[in-house]
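Q: My collaborator sent me two sequences in one message, no labels, and asked for predicted structures for both. Can we handle them in order? The first one she listed is below.
A: Yes, handling them in the order given. First sequence, followed by its structure tokens:
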Amino acid sequence: MRKQQPRKLQSVPHTVTGRTVQYRGALHNQRVEKVASRNHFASIFAIIIAVALIAVSMCAAVHVMRSQFFSHSNRTAIKSPKELAIEAEKREALIKAHKKLARRGVDSNSAEVRSVLSKMSLEDKVAQMFVVKPEELVGINWTVTSSGAQMQQTFNSLPVGGIMYTRENIQSPEQTKSMISKLQEMSNARVSLPAIVSVDEEGGTVARVSSNPQMGVNTSPNMRDIGVTKKMRKAYKAGAYIGKYLHDFGFNVDFAPVADVLTNPDNNLMKKRSFGSSPKLVASMTDAFTDGLQENHVFATYKHFPGHGSTFEDSHKGTTVSNQTPFSLRKVDLVPFKDAVDTGVKFIMVSHVSYPKITGDDTPASMSEMIVTGLARKKLGYNGILISDSLGMGAISLRYAPSSAAITGIKAGLDMLLSPANLRQAYYSVVNAVRRGEIPESRIDDSVKRIIAVKLQIAKYQKLSK
């Protein structure tokens, strides 16, 4: 019988340790593989447990940090409605303070202003209170398109504070620039001050310059169309665009923006010219328009104080009445004008609208001391120039003689009288009223100091432009 030979030992590396292991037969081989498999599984399981523990630790740490963060945020960020309102008021006040600083200009009580005033005769001071059309100054019925010898002669005897040009006077860019440049030469030579060179350029339906195709500029949209967008940027761009070409042509005052709140949707005079029916919207839009205009060294004029948006009649044609009460006037119509006062706007135009529930009678606002001095000066604290709407409009010319309108307006507190029905009657009536003591000369001086202050600022702008 054949003797069985012993099996040879096989050598293999251990799965985990890597050491060489000798085993005998298939059974031993299976046992080794099972041990190796168990050891491999144990290693993987240990790694998974370790990773899980690390993840749990990190989540716990993040939870603690989040709790601390939000606990701190709750203590510092959440504020009461009253606190938020106070902060909003502070921010608004700060914005207005910066704008007022930017628009402040020359102090009307400065030594520089008083020095200029002291060199003026009574006649020259009164003349400075008038802004007229060139035809009214020269005394002719045909259109003036240049500042020639006749204008020079008239201006030397009656150096008015400013000229208002209409569409008929404005024929081409070069003609307009020349006409205005020569006017400024006359004014500087006569009273050592520039003239106020003004125009009605609101955009839309009231655009004395851009409505002439020869001027080469586009007409901005009606302010109503800008207002409905509620985008202040559009109002700013309109003001900046208008201001740019007005300045290029030589104008320094624009009788815009319309600050009337349209509370009567049937008000045909204002429905396209007003920014809208919301007092806050109108205030923000007029402010943005003014920023654009005045960045181009053209002064804005808020109109028609204390508000023309509630009326039915047209003050160009005759008596116009507003039934606004003191409360509604304060809460609605005056909101944009209060903003103008707070930000230092230099011109406010006073309307010829009657407010019987405010004054107790049908006296036009421009002729009412209660409105001009009591409301604008005292209640609102306005220190800029109060200029009348055109005194040739039916609401005034059908009720007052030119001399009476001029005296009554100045007594009411107006600083400047726009386009009287008869310039010479109005001018000499004021001079004589001062001479006989009906109007104190100090009253004239108060207005002329405001005018000089603005003109000195215009002079500084002119130097910057050269």
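Q: And the one she listed second?
A: Here it is, processed independently of the first:
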Amino acid sequence: MVGYLLAFVFLIASANGDTISRIINGSPTTIASHPHQISLQRYTTSSGGYWYHTCGGSIVRSKWVVTAAHCVEGSSASTLQVVLTNGFLSDPNRKSYAVRRVIMHPNYNVGSGAYPHDIALLELTSDADLSGTNKAIELATTGENFDRQTCDISGWGHTVTGTQPNKQIPDQLQETNGVIMTNSECTSSWGTNYAGSVHICINNRNTGTCQGDSGGPMVCFRGSTPVLAGVTSWGVSGCGTTYPSVYARVSTYRSWLDTTMGI
């Protein structure tokens, strides 16, 4: 039993891009297909100082971005910036926005399971320019269910599998999709680490999210309207395996999100 538990714990790995920052087996895409997608960047003082992509996120209001709590844990607002691009991190016309406040869910990582309540809000110091291709996305409503729907995921995380140190993040935004699994199916894969009240998972066998995709969007549809249904949270070390990727269930946090944003 101990061996099984140790092996199982080894499988679980945050998709955090803190120290290594692709969508596995996905396809290059454009920001027009994912206009809500942002690059969350962190400042480092090494090599003279520079900003680097660390996680994804989603614009939900002109001054508000949703990302994963583990992406910003221990970070001050001054070390983070939100970057809007044309889908390429090297976009010469990219727009960078300073962060005024970092607000993690008050119950982040409290309770049973892996990374419960892994969601955070970033308040920008100024309104993001949403007059062009970049747009805010609607949030899932409380109790909204997306089981069996094919949903989209996107990000700039690693695009190759495994744990080799030479993995690089792509310049161009990547996308893939998968079918939302039921809570019982997700529990069959992850056991007690999966908590259906706060987690949602997607069947994206041999594709999916990886380091650098954390905090990014899982987008489902309400009719023809794209809706932020999940925030990339955790999966299997090595990425791109047969285990489902796990996301923070946005519908659970709609009330907290609205209250925090003053809506």
